[in-house]
Amino acid sequence: CPASPAAPLTFIMVQQTRVFKGNSIFWGNASLDGRLSHVLEGLNVTQVLPLEPPDTWAQRQKDVNTYLTYFSNLVKLFNKERPMDYTQRLCCHLGCRLYPNGTSHSFYEVALNGTAFLSFHVPNATWERRWPGQHQVATFAVKELMKYSITTQDLQYFLNTTCVSILQAQSTGTGKLSSRSRTPLVLGLILGTLSLLGMAMGIFLCTGGSC
SUPFAM superfamilies per the record (predicted)? Predict the structure, then answer.
């Protein structure tokens, strides 16, 4: 359906990860103003809308595959040290909105097994615990994610600048990013994976109360 003139333009990404007995399954997608733009299935991500040239996109696909493979191998390693016989489901929901008056809003939310787990406060690049009550895994994950620039300042830049520039290009009718803002769109998926790495470390290391 066509959007209302007063409705914001949106770029939304959803990344799902299911971990069970050391095996990781990935899936997700991204949408640009309601149109499917990217699809993640297993270790492969597909660009549905031609937002990046083929040679650039080929490198992005390789990057995503590398990060997801690294995540899978890390989970397998953790599972050997501390086997878990129950399923963990992690969901990253991130993106930005551009309003008609030129203002924007960016967000990054993480759920664990269907419950709000963490969120990223974009203005000051900090992770916040959302799990109700005290939760050692959430506390550990926040501590880990705050250690690295790629999961703080780089993530802030992606959400505040790159993501919004995608929508600005859309609003001007060009549909393409300028050369100045060609930070890979798939960086959001990569950052989501890195965030999951921090949480995976927490989930496995904190099992048994030995963070």
Answer: MHC antigen-recognition domain
| CA distances to 5, 112, 126 from 76, in Å | 49, 19, 29
183 located within any domain = no
Strands (E), the chain: 9-20, 23-32, 35-41, 44-47, 88-98, 104-112, 115-121, 126-129
Which of 62, 109, 105, 114 has the alpha carbon at shortest distance from 87?
Answer: 114
For residue 85, what are the domain limits?
9-174
Question: What is the reported pLDDT for 191?
Answer: 53
pLDDT tens for each residue of 9-64: 999 988 888 988 888 899 999 999 889 999 999 988 888 988 777 887 888 788 78
Query: Which of 200, 150, 162, 159 has the alpha carbon at shortest distance from 18?
Result: 200
Q: Regarding predicted confidence, which is higher, 208 or 82?
A: 82
Going edge to edge, which strands form the sheet with 23-32?
A: 44-47, 35-41, 23-32, 9-20, 88-98, 104-112, 115-121, 126-129
